[in-house]
Amino acid sequence: MELTLNGNQPGKLAVTDAIFACAFNEPLVHQVVTAYMSAGRAGTHAQKTRSEVSGGGAKPFRQKGTGRARAGTIRSPIWRKGGVAFAAKPRDYSQKVNRKMYRGALRAILSELIRQDRLIVVDELSLAVPKTREAKILFAKYSTETDRVLVVSEAVDQNLYLATRNLINIDVRDTAAIDPVALVGADKVIITAPALKQIEEQLT
To answer: Would you say domain 2-41+96-203 falls under CATH 3.40.1370.10?
Structure first.
């Protein structure tokens, strides 16, 4: 298939149908996106059970005659400063996703972006000076101010990065840093032709 090339030198860019024109596999994409987000969870939350809380070795008061409910330790879960009944422990939330599944999900996402006209291919993306004003003018041609824009290039232009780091809706990355969550969450994906060819080689 051919994609329209925008920018300074408009034209056509030939790409592989097996990568950029495949069917959208929603269960696979959901599984890969969920696994990617789960892998980012720290899983370091820790609570103590009644056996791990310090103190409480002695019976707080005698069994009978006080009028109070019987108690064997001040570290019971129903007592203040006591242990937690079902204490949370550090755990690993990561899910296994093999390389074939991951690449298949990326191909499905990229193909769907093309079908929805959310993928914009340009010949190059660069700025002469690192000015936020210049970046706004550059991206105004491709998206609105409220769009979440993911910019992908073969190598991040330093001026472009500095000009967009104060713009909360624009994320600039190179091809090695793209992920399924960023692709799915973007309203528009602006990618350079060399970067698209790099991704095509990686997903072949």
So the answer is: yes
What letter represents residue 124's amino acid? Answer: E
The ranges of the chain annotated as CATH 3.40.1370.10 are 2-41+96-203
Bridge partners of residue 188, in order along the sequence: 149
CB environment 160-199: b (16+ within 10 A), e (fewer): bbbbbeeeebbbbbebeebbbebbbebebbbbbbebbebb
Calpha distance 53→75 (Å, rounded): 7
For the beta sheet containing 149-153, the strands, ordered from the edge strand earlier in sequence to the opposite edge, are 11-14, 2-6, 119-122, 188-192, 149-153, 170-174
pLDDT at position 9 over 80: no
Using a pLDDT cut of 70, give the percent of the chain over it: 99
Q: pTM of the predicted model, to two decimals?
A: 0.81
Residue 15 CB contacts under 8 Å (≥ 6 apart), including other chains: 1, 2, 3, 196, 200
